[in-house]
């Protein structure tokens, strides 16, 4: 069971880095639905996965004026997963 759990932590960590992490500023988005982050991310997600999600701007990923932003809770949540993954190495 331990190997399965470790594999799952690694899988989720890699997925989060690919779809929810912004290399431009080193921060992460809160949600786990890439098609709600931006039109560009939704397009790339659909192309790479074969999904057919329509872009749906998530309020949790935007500030009061509708601009994309990251949140402390989003960064902390992903950091916790990546920290678990790091401890497995």
Explain briefly what this protein structure is.
By secondary structure, this protein is mainly alpha-helical. It has helices at 2-19, 39-49, 72-87, and strands spanning 21-22, 27-28.
Task: Describe, in plain words, how this protein is organized in 3D.
The chain is mainly alpha-helical. The protein has one domain. 51% of the residues lie in helices and 4% in strands. It has helices spanning 2-19, 39-49, 72-87, and strands at residues 21-22, 27-28. Strands 1-2 form a two-stranded antiparallel ribbon. The longest helix has 18 residues, at 2-19.
Using DSSP, what is the number of strands? 2
How many helices does DSSP assign?
3
Write down the overall mean pLDDT: 91
Q: How many strands, what sense, and barrel or not for the largest sheet?
A: 2 strands, antiparallel
What is the element string, with H for helices and E for strands? HEEHH
Key structural traits:
89 residues; single chain; mainly alpha; globular
């Amino acid at each position: 069971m331990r190997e399965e759990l470790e594999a799952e932590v690694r899988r989720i960590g890699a997925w989060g880095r690919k779809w929810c992490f912004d290399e431009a500023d080193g921060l992460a988005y809160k949600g786990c639905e890439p098609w709600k982050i931006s039109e560009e991310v939704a397009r790339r997600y659909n192309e790479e996965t074969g999904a057919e999600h329509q872009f749906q701007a998530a309020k949790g990923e935007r500030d009061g004026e509708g601009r994309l932003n990251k949140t402390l809770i989003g960064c902390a949540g992903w950091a916790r997963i990546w920290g678990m993954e790091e401890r497995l190495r």
